[in-house]
Amino acid sequence: MRTSTVGDLRILLPELDPDDLDTISDPSDDLSDGTIENASWHGLTLDDVTVRGSRLIGVDVSESSWEAGSLFGCEITRTDFSGATLSGLSIERCAVTGSRFTGTRLTDIRLKDVLFEGCRFDYATLTRVTAAGAVAFVDCVLTDATWSSCRLSDAVLRSCQLARLELDSCHLHGADLRGNTLHDLKTALGNLHGVTLDEDQLPDLTHLAVTELHLTVRKR
């Protein structure tokens, strides 16, 4: 069993042997124990599709609609979900690396033991995304994204770009936001209730408080 530790979070990840996997390209096939490389699923409608124990490498899922189904025990690398609509998916025990979610709409997504590393979520919309277990974002671009009614308690964000990330009615209690710049977040302070910060982030937090409370700060 492969694990990754981010901050105090231990994430269970898949350990796949490429030699044990079949080559797959058609999303209507059995998507278990396979390698799906450079396949084009652009603009497809994927209803209740489940991918298990597989590697997705360079797959084009952009502008697609994927409703229900799941990703379980998968390694997802350099895969393009730009402009896709993902709804009602369960994503568990997955390592997602160098993938693009630019402008993606993720709604009612359940995450458990998921590591996003070096991924782009700029202009993405996350609505009612829930962490049912360990979730981490490392070196990810989250600029101009919107998180609405998300429950990502105990999640870890490390070295992420958060400029103009908008948080609305989110529950992040216990989330570890150390190592990120918070100055340009678009959020009410209530969305940060119970998060963990480091001392270097306190000036950013002060800036957010001054903005939310419409304070006027003047020199004597």
Automatic annotation (TrEMBL):
The record's PANTHER family line, in alphabetical order, gives: BTB_POZ DOMAIN-CONTAINING PROTEIN KCTD9
| Coiled-coil ranges from the UniProt annotation | none
The UniProt entry, under InterPro entries, shows: 5peptide_repeat (IPR001646), Pentapeptide-BTB/POZ_domain (IPR051082)
| Pfam families, A to Z | Pentapeptide (PF00805), Pentapeptide_3 (PF13576)
Q: What is the native source organism of this protein? A: Micromonospora echinospora
- Under what name is this protein listed? Uncharacterized protein YjbI, contains pentapeptide repeats
Q: Taxonomically, which superkingdom? A: Bacteria
